Amino acid sequence: MPETSAQADIGLIGLAVMGQNLVLNMNDKGFTVAVYNRTVSKVDDFVEGPAAGRETILGAHSLEEFVGKLKRPRRVMILVKAGPPVDAFIEKVLPLLEPGDIVIDGGNSNFHDTIRRTKHVEDKGLLYIGTGVSGGEEGARHGPSIMPGGSPPAWEHVQDIFQAVAAKVEDGSPCCDWVGQDGAGHFVKMVHNGIEYGDMQLICEAYALMQAIGMTPPEMHEVFETWKRSELNSYLIDITADILGHVDGESVKPALDALREEAALCRVLGSYPRALS
To answer: Which helix H or strand E contains 185, and what residues bound it?
Structure first.
């Protein structure tokens, strides 16, 4: 592959919605991104659809073409279903890379798997990052929290990209920093998820108690709005207040009353903001 074809700062494998949105986010921040998907037609669908007109998003129809588009050290990010699909892509891409290149798993992998994969990739002379990415589809598009760990020398080669696309706090600091070696990134993501699910359970129990004493969604909305203005405020409290206060356009009733009974609040929270679209 001619060296002049190596234009991309990073490459991403896996063009489901999370992958597509993360690519668009990277591209918005000035990075050239190569993309590949096992179902190759999705590459064309993405490049000609959501990425239409973006000349610095480069579609590839084979892994060889994909790797050939990457600047050295090559940064290959895999964003596919956790488990065997990650191992399968690692084994496919390793023979195409060279010492010093970096493999990145951005999925929800078990940190034990990340420890194993880090050693396996390092034994081949390459570097490995297992990173938690939090924020869902909207976060991927506009600013996720990113929790990278793995081979420490890899950090300097991805820091500018990761911190550019990450969410920012009020003082502009990115919601991303190196958290440790081996499986540390995915371990932190596991802890993060546990705290989030515990928070969701508390919100659901509060909702159930309010419902049991006969409160209406607008009354619950007022309570959550009060919590938003206190030390209890969080993203989950914020979107719960929005959901409880949203009015269904057709029935002019609280939107939560218009949902099917089996659509529990936790499921609504998990699909927000699609639940209100």
So the answer is: helix 184-212
Rounded Cα distance, 114 and 185, in Å: 9
Q: Is the peptide bond before 273 cis (omega within 30 degrees of 0)?
A: yes
CA distance 221 to 241: 5
Q: How far apart are CA 118 and CA 103, in angstroms?
A: 9
Other C-beta atoms within 10 Å of 24: how many?
20
- pLDDT over 90 percentage in the chain: 79
* Residue 33, number of CB atoms within 10 A of its CB: 26
Here the tokens at position 178 are: 């190196």
Tell how many helices (H) and how many strands (E) occur in the chain: 12, 8
The SS3 call for residue 147 is strand
Q: How far apart are CA 213 and CA 197, in angstroms?
A: 25
Q: HEC states along 186-242? A: HHHHHHHHHHHHHHHHHHHHHHHHHHHCCCCHHHHHHHHHHHHCCCCCCHHHHHHHH
Phi, psi of 181 (to 5 degrees): -90, 175
Instruction: Quote the tokens at residue 142.
Output: 């506009």
Structure tokens belonging to residue 55: 């000349």
Positions annotated as catalytic residues are 189, 196
Tens of pLDDT, residues 27-73: 999 999 999 999 999 999 999 999 999 999 999 999 999 999 999 99
Residue 269 token pair: 């929270």
Strand pairing category for 127-134 and 102-105: parallel
Cis amide leading into 73 (omega within 30): yes
What's the pLDDT tens digit per position in 201-240?
A: 999 999 999 999 999 889 999 999 999 999 988 889 998 9
